[in-house]
Every structure is written in C-alpha cells, then in structure tokens.
Amino acid sequence: MDETDAVPTPEPKILLLVDGSSYLYRAFHAMPDLRAVPGTRPARPPAPFAA
Fold first, then answer.
1. Do the beta carbons of residue 26 and residue 32 sit within 8 Å?
2. Whether the model pTM is above 0.70
3. What contacts 44, CB < 8 A, 6 or more positions away?
4. Where are the alpha helices (DSSP H) in the chain?
5. Do residues 36 and 42 touch, judged by C-beta distance below 8 A?
6. Other Cβ atoms closer than 10 A to 19
7. Would you report the helix, strand and coil content of the chain in percent, each value rounded to 5?
8. Cα separations in angstroms, 15 against 4, 12, 18, 24, 42
9. What is the rounded end-to-end Cα distance, in angstroms, of the chain?
10. What is the pLDDT of residues 1-27, one digit of tens each?
C-alpha cells in the first residue's frame, strides 16, 4: 500500500450555536425608558395618524 491509496481525512465540521434569546433580552433591557415623564403631557401623534 503506497501513499496514493490512502484515504483522505475529512476536515472537521464547525457547529456554531447562537443564543438568540440572550441577544433579545440584552437588546430589550439596553433600551432607554420610553414611558412619558410624570407631570408632562404625552406627545401628539402626527396629523395622518390622528383620529
């Protein structure tokens, strides 16, 4: 048996796991507080969205 009869070894496969819920949790809690400041009037909606 010589070198030409050798079976090539396959390259190792890479498995990449991403924790999507962790990214969503961090992104949600990184946002600033979007509630209105107490004692102020809420902003009026733009004219096309006003009822």
1. no
2. no
3. 50
4. 20-30
5. yes
6. 9
7. 35, 0, 65
8. 31, 10, 10, 21, 49
9. 85
10. 556 678 888 889 999 998 889 888 888
| CA dist 20 → 8, 24, 26, 30 (Å) | 37, 6, 10, 15
Query: Which of 10, 30, 11 minimizes the C-alpha distance to 22?
Result: 30
Residue 31 in tokens: 């946002």
The residue whose two tokens read 């733009």 is 46
State the number of CA atoms in the 13 A half-sphere of 26 facing the CB.
5
